[in-house]
Amino acid sequence: MLYTSRRADETKLSGVSWEYGTKIGIAESKDGGAHWRYVGTADIPFGKPDYTFWAPDVIRFQGTYHMFLTVVPGTYTDWRGTRRILHLTSSDLMHWKPQGYANLVGDKVIDPCLFQLPNGNWRMWYKNAADNGKIYFSDSNDLVHWTPRGIAITSPGEGPVVFQWRGSYWMIEDAWNGLAVFRSTNLTTWKRQPHNLLRKPGLRPTDRAQGAHPDVVVDAADHAWLFYFTPQSGADAKPGDPLWRRRTVIHVTELHEDRDVLTVDRNMPAHIRMLPPPRDKKSDGVPVHAETVHTPG
């Protein structure tokens, strides 16, 4: 699991600067996702010490891992700064070689998600912060050169994840009011389902907030596991610690599908034990050799 490692414990940072200057944390599980162990941060030799790394998306293609990473050149106290998506490669998921920025629609783009199309080409979805947070998409035949294709989702959101399951393509994004769900038959036009997932806070400790920044893994047993994070506040706040609300916890719950609608019950135990090898959420059903690595925002 690769994730944005915020600086929640820094006490002398002003504004939102604790959300900048971040590294990419790595955790590993030996039992199919039930228990996780922190192993360090990704070695990304790019930029200056104050550069910000957000929301990685990682795939494995033809024996090489490819990471697409949001990069902000600097650390800010507000939401200024350019944001671009950097392409990197690796053979071990720890040490990464920068390959250059992806040529997308502008310099305010974040949260990439890749999926391999039936024709073997690649499609990337991402948030365009310069256009009210709409989800744009671009295509590539080599993971290097990208052609803009327009707007996929007009409603604002971030952290899109695209996967194939139960005969449909799905996109789930953080709508800042739970997780919005969209369904497609062609990976181009999307229909939104009426109700957001995880809009109502859960009942379990550390899960009593709306779910944010999703990712999905479909395993070999056809279970679809929804990973998400929650901020710690309200009943989960620590008395006397004003920084506690910065803390976040990653959770997992199982997706269910009925008549083209996705639902979850976050209050039920998730008896997760993903069966290896997991079916690739990025190209499930596509006759090509690609794998995915779980990468929550």
Protein traits:
single chain, 297 residues, mainly beta, Tachylectin-2, Chain A, five-stranded antiparallel beta sheet, four-stranded antiparallel beta sheet
What does this structure look like?
- By secondary structure, this protein is mainly beta.
- 0% of the residues lie in helices and 44% in strands.
- It is built from no helices and 21 strands.
- The strands form six sheets. A five-stranded antiparallel β-sheet has the order 7-6-5-4-21, with no helix packed on it. A four-stranded antiparallel β-sheet has the order 8-9-10-11, with no helix packed on it. Strands 12-13-14-15 form a four-stranded antiparallel β-sheet, with no helix packed on it.
- It is globular, with a radius of gyration of 18 Å.
- It starts with a strand and ends with a strand.
Outline:
By secondary structure, this protein is mainly β.
Shape assignment: globular
Classified by CATH, the class is Mainly Beta
Please give the order of strands in the largest beta sheet: 7-6-5-4-21
Q: Give average pLDDT, whole number.
A: 93
Low-confidence stretches: 283-292
CATH architecture: 5 Propeller
Strand content: 35-45%
Topology (SSEs and partners):
Elements: E1 2-5, E2 23-28, E3 37-41, E4 52-61, E5 64-72, E6 84-90, E7 97-101, E8 109-116, E9 122-128, E10 134-140, E11 147-153, E12 158-165, E13 168-174, E14 179-184, E15 191-192, E16 212-218, E17 224-231, E18 248-254, E19 256-258, E20 261-263, E21 290-293
Antiparallel strand pairs: 1-2, 2-3, 4-5, 4-21, 5-6, 6-7, 8-9, 9-10, 10-11, 12-13, 13-14, 14-15, 16-17, 17-18, 19-20
